[in-house]
């Protein structure tokens, strides 16, 4: 009997329509866990660097995490993995709500898509019955519209649907896959799904998931459930309200956004409006959030309710989450929240990433204002300005991008590639990318060494790469620091407490010291990779300060659920193996040291020599050489000689 995992994957060849149920290798679970970890192993084995995102040989893997479908609170994440069209590196994006557990309940851990369907189809998994169905009538339909039509035609209101919209069908490089109020948004999962001719994945499952030691596992789940209200009653001092407790983060619950709106840049991520948040703005946000957020909504088996059902009068209701609440309105120099809600709903139906899309549009507006794009390139482009807002321009651009019409065709490739297609100096306007992917603009004055490493080396490509476990800023008062570390049970080692005690304000860029930076960033990254392999939501773990899940209780969960004998050093080594495989996969596709850099204008004050030293130290810490290539020795230590053999054959390592 298999525990936690079902022990079966579905292999779908979209070119031929062939569907196979394939037994999985338990050794892979032991070595790479589920979700991201085992996705990566499959991708490494089957997608060589010669395969591009839109080649039929590229795989799109839809996976539940190892603990999804169990009673573990917040084990809700499905993980999509493929080659990203925007970065040509591995892309992975997580999706919450209900579908990951449903896949397990249907009897499968992963669905692996290869090939391309000649006609638009959707996959219908109904327990043991799995079929590809014609989706030609869904062509051009919105993501939620598609879900509704499918549920009606299957007469199955409980079917969970993950769908692409027009943007995915048109291979917009930052197209998302949308499900319920959640989405797999980053790195173009929707574009690859559209390229494969797959409109939706539809799942209904009613089977149980086996647990190796149910009583022990139940006790662990109970401990997490008991911890959540305690942590909720103890907000962390000095942290914005949306992030001071648990959740992913609680943007829909809180109206106060002074931190984001005063500190994060507007438009094309250049300019902060440090005095934007006034008492009048505060009152407006209080009223509009109260009026528009009909109720808070959450995911399967989680009490947090991080999403909001948004109802703008005269418009369809929709589920919204997180910082998308502001990305469009700030990108357009608007501030009008009804504009943001309205355009975010349309963008969700088209199926595009709520971080990249507003940035691409703000980039286009800047190019127009600089005369690089003209009325000839953009006939009918509405009027607008920083002062009056660019709302109408954003609506216009969003349509063009989703349809790949006119200038929208270049913009659909993201700022990096669009700039190169447009030319005429447009490249300097595409300033806010890392590895060709738009990042959240969080431009500040002084180099932050922790964020330098996170932005530069992180492969996760989420909004802030890999932050979460370590406070963003130090506390002024040593007493506050002492208080903070008192109940800090989540630290992997006591030395982290000392790092925090020693960390005083205004010590950037040289504190925390290099050794501490390596330890801290590695810890944060490790927790993200655990989450993404187990399917635990970052909102109860890697994205939060002092969360209920941590490196000390994760091995207990894994052992009790799967029966695998996993202890803390074993888990740390497993995660290092997964992270190293991600790195090796990208190295095999050409990633090198020169790519591991935050945007040049990330901080006003930079220290190139120090940054170089920091990066070298971090590579060494990770077991990578000066170029960021995993060394033969470190690969051997992790039981990954198959990787070094491959890299050696390709002449990448000697
Ligand atoms: S913390 Fe929020 S986003 Fe995460 S599983 Fe719970 S409700 Fe969903």
Compose a concise summary of this entry.
40% of the residues lie in helices and 13% in strands. It has 654 residues and is α+β, with helices and mostly antiparallel strands.
What does this structure look like?
This protein has 654 residues and is of the alpha+beta class. The protein folds into 3 domains: 8-204, Aldehyde ferredoxin oxidoreductase, N-terminal domain (Aldehyde Ferredoxin Oxidoreductase,  A, domain 1); 235-431, Aldehyde Ferredoxin Oxidoreductase Protein, subunit A, domain 2 (Orthogonal Bundle), CATH 1.10.569.10; 444-649, Aldehyde Ferredoxin Oxidoreductase Protein, subunit A, domain 3, CATH 1.10.599.10. It has 24 helices and 19 strands. The strands form 6 sheets. A 6-stranded mixed β-sheet has the order 2-1-6-3-4-5, with helices on both faces. It is globular, with a radius of gyration of 23 Å. The mean pLDDT is 95. The structure holds iron/sulfur cluster (SF4). The site of iron/sulfur cluster (SF4) has 14 residues, from loops. Iron/sulfur cluster is lined by residues 74, 76, 96, 247-248, 298-299, 302, 304-306, 537, 539-540.
Mean pLDDT: 95
Total number of strands:
19
Bound molecules: iron/sulfur cluster
Biggest β-sheet description: 6 strands, mixed
The CATH superfamily of the largest domain is identified as Aldehyde Ferredoxin Oxidoreductase Protein, subunit A, domain 3
Read across the widest sheet, the strand sequence of neighbours is 2-1-6-3-4-5
**If you compute it from the alpha carbons, what radius of gyration comes out, rounded to the nearest whole angstrom?**
23 Å
- Structural classification: alpha+beta
Q: Tally the structural domains.
A: 3
Number of helices: 24
- Annotated CATH architecture of the largest domain: Orthogonal Bundle
Helix content: 25-40%
Low-confidence stretches: none
The proportion of strand residues reads 5-15%
Shape: globular
CATH class of the largest domain: Mainly Alpha
Output the CATH topology of the largest domain.
Aldehyde Ferredoxin Oxidoreductase Protein, subunit A, domain 3
CA(first)-CA(last) distance: 43 Å
């Amino acid at each position: 009997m298999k525990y936690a995992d079902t022990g079966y994957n579905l292999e779908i060849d979209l070119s031929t329509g062939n569907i196979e149920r394939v037994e999985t290798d338990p050794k892979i679970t032991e070595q790479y866990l589920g979700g991201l970890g085992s996705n990566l192993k499959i991708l490494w084995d089957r997608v060589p660097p010669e395969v591009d995102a839109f080649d039929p040989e590229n795989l799109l893997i839809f996976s539940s995490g190892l603990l999804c479908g169990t009673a573990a609170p917040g084990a809700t994440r499905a993980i999509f993995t493929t080659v990203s069209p925007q970065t040509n590196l591995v892309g992975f994006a997580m999706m919450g709500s209900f579908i990951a557990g449903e896949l397990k309940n249907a009897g499968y851990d992963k669905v692996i898509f290869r090939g391309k369907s000649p006609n638009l189809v959707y996959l219908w998994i109904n327990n043991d019955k799995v079929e590809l169905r014609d989706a030609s009538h869904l062509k051009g339909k919105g993501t939620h519209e598609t879900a509704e039509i499918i549920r009606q035609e299957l007469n199955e209101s409980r079917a969970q649907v993950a769908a692409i919209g027009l943007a995915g069908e048109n291979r917009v490089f930052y197209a998302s896959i949308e499900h319920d109020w959640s989405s797999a948004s980053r790195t173009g999962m929707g574009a690859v799904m559209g390229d494969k001719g797959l409109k939706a994945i539809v799942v209904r499952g009613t089977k149980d998931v086996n647990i190796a030691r149910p009583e022990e596992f139940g006790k662990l789940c109970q401990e997490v459930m008991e911890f959540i209200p305690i942590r909720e009653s103890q907000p962390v001092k000095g942290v914005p309200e949306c992030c001071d407790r648990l959740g992913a983060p609680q943007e829909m619950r809180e109206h106060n956004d002074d931190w984001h709106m005063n500190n994060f840049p507007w438009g094309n991520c250049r300019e902060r409006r440090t005095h934007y948040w006034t008492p009048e703005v505060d009152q407006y946000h209080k009223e509009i959030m109260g009026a528009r957020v009909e109720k808070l909504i959450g995911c399967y088996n989680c009490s947090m309710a991080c999403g909001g059902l948004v109802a703008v009068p005269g418009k369809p209701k929709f589920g919204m989450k997180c910082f998308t609440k502001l990305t469009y309105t700030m990108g357009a120099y608007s501030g009008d929240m009804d504009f943001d809600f309205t355009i975010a709903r349309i963008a969700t139906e088209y199926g595009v990433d709520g971080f990249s899309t507003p940035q691409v549009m703000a980039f286009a507006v800047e190019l127009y204002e600089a005369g690089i794009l003209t009325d000839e390139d953009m006939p009918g482009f509405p009027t607008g300005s920083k002062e009056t807002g660019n709302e109408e321009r954003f609506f216009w651009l969003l349509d063009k991008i989703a349809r790949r019409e006119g200038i929208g065709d270049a913009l659909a490739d993201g700022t990096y590639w669009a700039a190169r297609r447009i030319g005429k100096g447009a490249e300097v306007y595409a300033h806010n990318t890392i590895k060709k992917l738009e990042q959240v603009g969080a431009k500040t004055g002084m180099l932050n060494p922790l964020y330098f490493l996170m932005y530069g080396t992180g492969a996760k490509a989420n909004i802030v790469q890999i932050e979460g476990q370590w406070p963003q800023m130090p506390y002024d008062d040593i007493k506050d620091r002492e208080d903070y570390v008192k109940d800090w049970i989540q630290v992997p080692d006591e030395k982290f407490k000392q790092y925090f005690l020693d960390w005083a304000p205004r010590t950037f860029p040289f504190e925390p010291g290099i050794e501490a930076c390596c330890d801290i960033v590695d810890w944060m990254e490790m927790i993200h990779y655990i989450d993404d392999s187990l399917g635990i939501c970052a909102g109860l773990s890697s994205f939060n300060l002092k969360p209920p899940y941590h490196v000390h209780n994760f091995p207990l969960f894994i052992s009790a659920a799967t029966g695998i004998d996993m202890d803390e050093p074993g888990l740390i080594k497993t995660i290092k193996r997964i992270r190293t495989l991600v790195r090796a996969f990208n190295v095999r596709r050409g990633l090198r040291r020169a790519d591991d850099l935050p945007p040049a204008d990330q901080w006003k004050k930079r220290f190139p020599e120090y940054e170089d030293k920091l990066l070298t130290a971090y590579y060494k810490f990770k077991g990578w050489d000066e170029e960021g290539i995993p060394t033969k020795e470190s690969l051997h230590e992790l039981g990954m000689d198959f990787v070094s053999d491959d890299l050696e054959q390709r002449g990448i390592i000697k």
